[in-house]
Structures are given as structure tokens and as C-alpha cells.
Amino acid sequence: MANTLNLDASSISPARPTLMDRVRDIVTRRRMYTTTVNELGQLSDRELNEMGMGRHGIRRVAWEYAYGDRA
């Protein structure tokens, strides 16, 4: 008597992210950071001031956007 186990891919969920999930997350967040720095860097000082930030705050704002509160 043979026992069979039928599983489909939707019934299997990993307990933690795979290596590829982690790499994809790192690449995505880095792209978000870089794009934000580049876009804010193209604004004039006046436009940045109207948004309530100076040129010195561009990297901090981009970091918080891409990574949140993680240090």
C-alpha cells in the first residue's frame, strides 16, 4: 500500500525569507534610496526649502523613505 502526499506550491510557505527574497529586498531598497537622492538633488534650494528641508537633509529623507527607522 503506497501513501501519497499531494502538495501544491500555495500550501507551502517558508518560515523565513529565502536568500533570494533578502537580496531582492536589498536591491529594491537601495534603488529607492538612490532614486530619491537623485530626484531631490535635482531640486533647487528654494524648492527644497518650500518642502521644509535643506540640501543637507536629502540623504536622511531618502534613507527614511527606503529603510524606515532602521539604522
Question: Can you tell me about this structure?
Answer:
- With 71 residues, this protein is mostly helical.
- The chain is built from 3 helices and no strands.
- It is rod-shaped.
- α1 runs antiparallel to α3.
- The N and C termini lie far apart (57 Å).
- 55% of the residues lie in helices and 0% in strands.
> What global shape is seen?
rod-shaped
Helix amount: 40-55%
Please mark out the parts with pLDDT under 50 across 5 or more consecutive residues, or reply none: none
Write down how many β-strands occur, each being a DSSP E stretch of 2 or more residues.
Answer: 0
Helix/strand-derived class?
mainly alpha
Strand content: under 5%
Number of helices: 3
Q: Could you spell the SSE succession in H and E letters?
A: HHH
Alpha carbon gap, first and last residue: 57 Å
Tell me the major beta sheet. none
Taking all residues together, what is the mean pLDDT? 86
> Roughly how many Å is the radius of gyration?
21 Å
Keywords:
single chain, 71 residues, 3 helices, mainly alpha
Brief write-up:
The chain has 71 residues and is mainly alpha-helical. It is 55% helix and 0% strand.
